[in-house]
Amino acid sequence: IFYKRSSKFSTVVILAQIIILGILLTWSQIFNFQSIIGEDPYYHAWFVENIISFGTIPPDTAYSFLPIFHLIIGLFCQISGMTYRLSATLSVGLFQIIINTLFIFLLGRKVLNEKIGLIAALLLILSPRHIRMGYEIVPTTLAAIYIPIIVYLVFSDKMKNKSVPSVLIMLFTLMMILTH
Question: CA distances (Å), 103 to each of 15, 48, 81, 123, 140, in order?
Answer without folding.
Answer: 11, 29, 30, 13, 17
